[in-house]
From TrEMBL:
GO cellular component terms given for this protein: mitochondrial matrix
Compartment(s) of residence: Mitochondrion matrix
Protein's name according to its UniProt entry: Probable proline--tRNA ligase, mitochondrial
Protein encoded by which gene: PARS2
EC top class, as a word: ligase
A Pfam short name: HGTP_anticodon
Catalytic activity annotation: tRNA(Pro) + L-proline + ATP = L-prolyl-tRNA(Pro) + AMP + diphosphate
Main location: mitochondrion
GO biological process: prolyl-tRNA aminoacylation
Coiled-coil residues: none
């Protein structure tokens, strides 16, 4: 292999330590020798390999030298941007002293594709839309044909999520979650983690395969009926795919034989797939047969402590929905097959919801109608008339007492040195359901709107159409991208470039509007003014403003990312 070729393929500079530059390449051993001769320190491990790396002391590079057209992927750790640039420039000068072949290839490599990024020469990585995996491309001529399927499309969120390629149907009640949805879900999980850990939650991860013995112990192997997805292993041993984990977690805690009251409470939670053979899976992610749930199980040493924990978790749920900007009601609810002494649901009031709620406008009373005596439609607290509304249940809390701990013998040593059963609570949040419900509540008929914190990407940049009068503004938008990346590192990975420049700005704006990026920034005619003005669409305020590069950075500096 020729030296120049492989240098171009994988030249990558990264700044691991402030004092050194690390340089990686793939190719023949010849590089090592060559680089060694040029004063690079060659990594011991790789000296004989076809791949390798070299170190160069940062002080050996002089600032102020011109950058050539080379592919550079840089990550700065503990190094200021200007020092980074200086080191890069110095390095490039050294590359230029390599044989003509290498230099020549470096100069020819205008742009090189690498994954989702477009690595234009000498610039920062740019995330580009054309490389996104979205089976339903948004252009009207390619929009997923929903004809003949209208019977299945029972609500707005399901229709929109299918149309824009957020989900793809796999089998009844099961969906592939596509990249944008996974990004939004990962953000939601981060917010949930923050809220759960703020009240002392510890994250665990329990198996989805749950043995029949556990479920027989609580009699739920029979009680759950057809909802339980059952299977057998090669030895004939029976299992179900966990629809919830009270049995598993209580057996886990019971296996710890020397627990003391001093160690309690335990607030154990997980975010995992749940399986329920729903009689009527529908509404897309709102009611699936396989879905993500956050389930927390708490273990306390007394009823008072358990009630305190119950109110802490309810408080954390309120805080979560407030942070997401989702209007919710907490209603008293039925305990259902989970059982226990008391339960509340967190509901998003919306017409497509499957639950009927009764809310008292004069006092704080609100309940799921299942819990009320329907002959009496007045508020049991203030006797005033109740208002009825529909809701989507997004969270459910249960005070369980010792229902499960008594069966599995989950006990601890109390303050008197005697064994005592743990007082339990369990608390569910429908993770995938929250995503769909948020879209259901916030979106218009045609355009998805996200809770700001969960938007898969915060910013979409739209350069001019290829061959248009404004084409000259393409580079200006590129440099705006790099400016944002440098000034607002918190937005790393959040800025997407719609590089489908064969389409008009108008068409791409329509797509961006449908996908609901909180900020859409267009380089149109006014980008060619001096100074450049970019057209900024702010989804949350429905405003369109023209801002300079500095104005854009100031506006985006307020964006919250999780
Ligand atoms: P529902 O009455 O809607 O069937 P549930 O009372 O059976 O809900 P829980 O067992 O309390 O639900 O589960 C906790 C949370 O998991 C629910 O509040 C809901 O947000 C979510 N969830 C339950 N079933 C589904 C499902 N089939 N698809 C998506 N999310 C679900
Ligand atoms: Mg259910």
């Amino acid at each position: 292999m020729m030296v120049g070729e492989s240098l171009v393929v994988s030249l990558c500079l990264s700044f691991r330590k402030a004092s050194h530059v690390r340089l990686e390449w793939g190719g023949a051993r010849a590089h090592s020798t060559l680089l060694h001769e040029r004063g690079f320190v060659i990594g011991e491990k790789h000296r004989r390999g076809a791949e390798g790396w070299a170190r160069l002391p940062a002080h050996a590079c002089r600032p102020g030298m011109a950058v050539t057209r080379a592919m550079l992927a840089t990550t700065a750790v503990g190094m200021s941007a200007s020092l980074c640039r200086a080191v890069m420039e110095g390095l490039l000068t050294r590359w230029r002293t390599l044989p003509a072949q290498a230099t020549c290839r470096l100069q020819l490599s205008g742009s090189i594709p690498c994954g989702l990024h477009h690595c234009a020469s000498g610039r920062r990585k740019r995330l580009v839309l054309s490389r996104m995996f979205q089976p339903q491309n948004l252009r009207e001529d390619q929009v997923l044909s929903l004809e003949g399927r209208s019977g299945e499309l029972t609500c707005k969120s399901q229709r929109l999520m299918l149309q824009v390629g957020l989900i793809h149907p796999a089998s009844p009640g099961c969906y592939h979650l596509l990249p944008y949805t996974v990004r939004a879900m990962e953000k939601l999980v981060r917010v949930i983690d923050q809220e759960m850990q703020a009240i002392g939650g510890q994250k665990v991860n329990m198996p989805s395969l749950s043995s029949a013995e556990l479920w027989r112990a609580t009699n739920r192997w029979d009680l759950m009926g057809k909802e339980l997805l059952r299977l057998r292993d090669r030895h004939g041993k029976e299992y179900c795919l966990g629809p919830t984990h009270e049995e598993a977690v209580t057996a886990l805690v019971a296996s710890q034989k020397t627990l003391s009251y001093k160690q309690l409470p335990f607030l154990l939670y997980q975010v995992t797939r749940k399986f329920r053979d729903e009689p009527r899976p529908r509404f897309g992610l709102l009611r699936g047969r396989e879905f993500y749930m956050k389930d927390m199980y708490t273990f306390d040493s007394s009823t008072e402590a358990a009630w305190h924990t119950y109110s802490l978790v309810c408080g954390a749920y309120c805080s979560l929905f407030n942070r997401l900007g989702l209007p919710f009601v907490k209603v008293q609810a039925d305990v259902g097959s989970i059982g226990g002494m008391m339960s509340h649901e967190f509901q998003l009031p919306v017409d497509v919801g499957e639950d009927q709620l009764a809310i008292c406008p004069s006092c704080s009373f609100s309940a799921n109608m299942e819990t009320l005596d329907l002959s009496q439609m007045n508020c049991p607290v203030c006797q005033g008339p109740l208002t009825k509304t529909k809701g989507i249940e997004v969270g459910h809390t249960f005070y369980l007492g010792t229902k499960y701990s008594s069966i599995f013998n989950a006990q601890f040593t109390n303050v008197h040195g005697k064994p005592s059963l743990a007082e339990m609570g369990c608390y569910g949040l429908g993770v995938t359901r929250i995503l769909a419900a948020a879209i259901e509540v916030l979106s218009t008929e045609d355009c998805i709107r996200w809770p700001g914190l969960l938007a898969p990407y915060q910013v979409c940049l739209i350069p001019p159409k290829r061959g248009s009068k404004e084409e000259g503004a393409t580079e200006l938008l590129g440099s705006l991208h790099d400016h944002i990346a440098e000034a607002l590192p918190q937005l790393h990975g959040e800025v997407l470039l719609d590089d489908r420049t064969h389409l008009t700005i108008g068409n791409r704006l329509k797509d961006a509007n449908k996908l609901g990026y909180p900020f859409v920034i267009i380089a149109g005619k006014r980008a060619l003014e001096d100074p450049s003005h970019f057209e900024v669409w702010c989804q949350n305020t429905s405003e369109v403003v023209f801002l300079t590069k500095e104005g854009v950075v100031e506006l985006l500096s307020t964006v919250q990312v999780v």
